[in-house]
């Protein structure tokens, strides 16, 4: 995939992985429309990037799960920068804890972590099929391949995000629509910080499960791997290579993997 002169849209781009991906895309010669529901933080990020990359940056606040906001974002990007060739569905929420999670927390997690991807694909894939090219990158999580101790909503919604990305790739990957799925463990972002700062026992447990499982990476390091994977048109992006080994253990002996995760959960609780 050629990034130079391509037009990309990145949601959840006020900070963290989204802002880092936008920066790396611009450094590789792309044009980028950034969006986030946090309007003030987005404006500051866009201003900093626009100073370095004049004429190639657009910012538009909005809800990544709201179809009308997505339409406005894609229309603005197309009018200002050109036809959208890459879409990074990066916006995400941590969700609620275990069985105590409310219906509203379940709805929010599924809406942002899954349906935002579905709605964006609905808007873009038909046009990409007509043109014969397009690239969709969904940010899921290692939790979408394994599980998330401490958060049922996060685990289930990220599994769904992985499943949707796989379906997109199977259905359209041989028709010009390339698909990648980003599945990191711990990354130094507001999402992980929010997990750790939450007073609820389950969400603090979720943070310990992430930080205890492997190195916490910096967003720009993750963005470098995303750019590399897009260039290679590789489906699964694993910034933490050990996730691949964890996944192999899970699929080779599911019961043994569950028992191991139970032991890990017990260790974290104690």
Automatic annotation (TrEMBL):
EC numbers for this chain: 1.1.1.340
Entry's Gene Ontology molecular function annotations: oxidoreductase activity
Keyword DNA damage attributed: no
Taxonomy, superkingdom: Bacteria
Claim: Membrane is one of the keywords in the record: no
InterPro entries in UniProt: NAD(P)-bd_dom_sf (IPR036291), Sc_DH/Rdtase_CS (IPR020904), SDR_fam (IPR002347)
Major enzyme class: oxidoreductase
SUPFAM superfamilies registered for this protein in UniProt: NAD(P)-binding Rossmann-fold domains
PANTHER family for this protein: 5-KETO-D-GLUCONATE 5-REDUCTASE, ALCOHOL DEHYDROGENASE, PUTATIVE (AFU_ORTHOLOGUE AFUA_3G03445)-RELATED
Protein family membership: Belongs to the short-chain dehydrogenases/reductases (SDR) family.
The protein's name: 1-deoxy-11-beta-hydroxypentalenate dehydrogenase
The organism of origin for this protein: Nocardia aurantia
């Amino acid at each position: 995939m050629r990034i130079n002169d391509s037009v990309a849209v990145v949601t959840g781009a006020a900070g963290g992985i989204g802002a880092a991906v936008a920066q790396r895309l611009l450094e590789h010669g792309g044009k980028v429309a950034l969006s986030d529901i946090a309007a003030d933080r987005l404006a500051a990020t866009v201003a900093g990037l626009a100073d370095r990359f004049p004429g190639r940056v657009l910012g538009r606040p909005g809800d990544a799960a709201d179809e009308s906001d997505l339409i406005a974002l894609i229309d603005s990007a197309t009018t200002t920068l050109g036809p959208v060739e890459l879409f990074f569905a990066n916006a995400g929420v941590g969700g609620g804890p275990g069985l105590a999670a409310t219906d509203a927390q379940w709805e929010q997690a599924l809406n942002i972590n899954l349906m935002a991807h579905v709605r964006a694909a609905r808007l873009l894939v038909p046009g990409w099929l007509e043109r014969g090219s397009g690239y969709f990158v969904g940010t899921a999580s290692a939790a979408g391949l394994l599980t998330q101790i401490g958060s049922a909503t996060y685990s289930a919604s990220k599994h769904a995000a992985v499943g949707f990305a796989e379906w997109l790739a199977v259905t359209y990957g041989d028709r010009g629509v390339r698909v990648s799925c980003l599945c990191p463990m711990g990354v130094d972002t507001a999402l992980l910080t929010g997990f750790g700062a939450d007073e609820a026992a389950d969400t603090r447990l979720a943070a310990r499960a992430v930080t205890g499982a492997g190195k916490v990476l910096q967003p720009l390091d993750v963005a470098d791997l995303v750019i590399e994977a897009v260039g290679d048109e590789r489906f699964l992006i694993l910034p933490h290579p050990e996730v691949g080994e964890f996944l192999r253990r899970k699929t080779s002996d599911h019961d043994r993997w569950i028992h191991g995760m139970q032991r890990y959960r017990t260790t974290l609780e104690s």
